[in-house]
Write a structure and sequence with these properties.
single chain, mainly alpha, 2 domains, two-stranded antiparallel ribbon, 2 strands, globular, disordered C terminus
Length: 383
């Protein structure tokens, strides 16, 4: 009797998930992971988004909580999105009558949820690479490189927002790219935009990348031809619309004001020389340098641009990365916590793994230079 083989995507998912789970740390920080549990505990036990007196909660209040003038309550300065998405697993892990603790079962539950998201990201990357014409070995290599050679792994432990954001950006760019080349469905692209909007509800740091991608699609709608412009326009605005709707609903429920964004209440942005210095730190410093910690995908992007490989895909990826770099470098808290690596750039680094196999791509994948002669005007024919 013939037994069906386990697909490579499922094998990658199971392998990554097991490794991440087996090596979970029973630890927490005073940052996003601790605050995530505080929000979940308040929602589950008190049915409120207010966190009460911050002295009762084992999280740092300086950058992560914002005081409200409504009854001297405190609220999260970060998004409530991930806390709500992971609420079912937190509810299953929270014993009846238990008190708040950052080292209890909820800690494991949230990390299991993020391990699931990270493993899904690895499997989705493999599927997207295969659909883009890469060979199986190249796609497996790229997916394992994402899982185990980047800061996605350690940041899945502490900076819990990044894996979902990176997954959503990668899926959105890949599906939109395929739809533009008439190799994919605009419906899939729009649905991936819904996921991107949900991810932005969890992670404000990808808003600039979303805007950059939306503008890129709008420019194509205006100047290009040979594809469904209405579908492209809908795909461009869906992520921003979904993110805005979810955030407005959350802000109304928490603060009674749909236009109040708590993350911006604690922030501050600067441009000019300080931003350029922060960008340099985010790229090459031993503390946050993306080229030091996650340099391979950036080198793959540079290779693709220099050799004119997948130029349309490279342009979309470059616009998202530069927008992310601009946003996090302009933010006064560009350093983003006590850890090493480009944690705030990670969402835009993940999609670059769509190009990482180009230098080793076999002959069967060399057709990428003629991506679509009918999508863009004459100057863009080689896309």
């Amino acid at each position: 009797m013939h037994r069906p083989k386990l697909s490579a995507a499922w094998a990658l998912f199971i392998f990554t998930f097991l490794i991440y789970v087996l090596l979970l740390q029973h630890a927490t920080s005073s940052g996003p992971d601790g605050l995530l549990m505080a929000i979940q505990y308040s929602l589950l036990r008190h049915h409120s988004m207010a966190l009460g007196n911050p002295s009762l909660i084992q999280v740092v209040t300086d950058q992560l909580l914002v005081a409200s003038d409504r009854g001297a309550q405190y609220y999260s300065a970060g998004s409530y999105g991930l806390a709500i998405l992971a609420l079912p697993v937190a509810a299953l892990a929270l014993p009846p009558g238990s008190h708040f603790t950052t080292l209890g079962p909820m800690s494991y539950a949230d990390r299991l949820f993020i391990a699931f998201i990270s493993a899904t990201f690895v499997a989705v990357l493999y599927k997207e690479l295969r659909s883009l014409g890469f060979g199986q070995r190249e796609s497996i290599f790229s997916s394992l490189a994402l899982a185990f050679t980047t800061t996605l792994w350690p940041e899945s432990e502490i900076f819990l927002y990044a894996p979902l954001s990176a997954l959503a950006l990668t899926l959105y760019i890949a599906e939109t790219y395929k739809a533009l080349l008439k190799r994919g469905s605009w419906l899939r692209a729009a649905l991936s935009g819904v996921l991107l909007g949900v991810a932005a509800w969890s992670d404000y740091s990808i808003i600039a990348a979303m805007i950059a991608l939306a503008l890129a699609l709008v420019m194509l709608v205006i100047f290009a031809r040979g594809f469904d412009r209405l579908s492209a326009l809908i795909t461009a605005v869906v992520p921003l619309d979904v993110a805005a709707a979810l955030q407005m609903a959350t802000s109304y429920a928490a603060f009674g004001d749909p236009f109040f964004v708590p993350g911006l209440a604690k922030g501050g942005f600067t441009v000019g020389v300080p931003m350029l210095v922060h960008a340099l730190y985010n790229l090459v410093s031993p503390y946050r340098g993306a080229l030091i910690y996650d340099g391979v995908p950036l080198l793959a992007l540079a290779y693709a641009i220099a050799r004119k490989r997948r130029p349309l895909l490279s342009a979309l990826l470059l616009s998202a990365f530069l927008a992310q770099l601009f946003e996090v470098s302009a933010w006064v808290y560009w350093d983003g916590g006590l850890s090493y690596g480009p944690r705030l750039l990670l969402p835009a680094l993940g999609p670059l793994f769509l190009l990482i196999a180009l230098p080793v791509q076999g002959r069967e994948g060399q057709r990428d230079r003629q991506d679509s002669p009918h999508v863009l005007p004459h100057a863009w024919l080689r896309y």
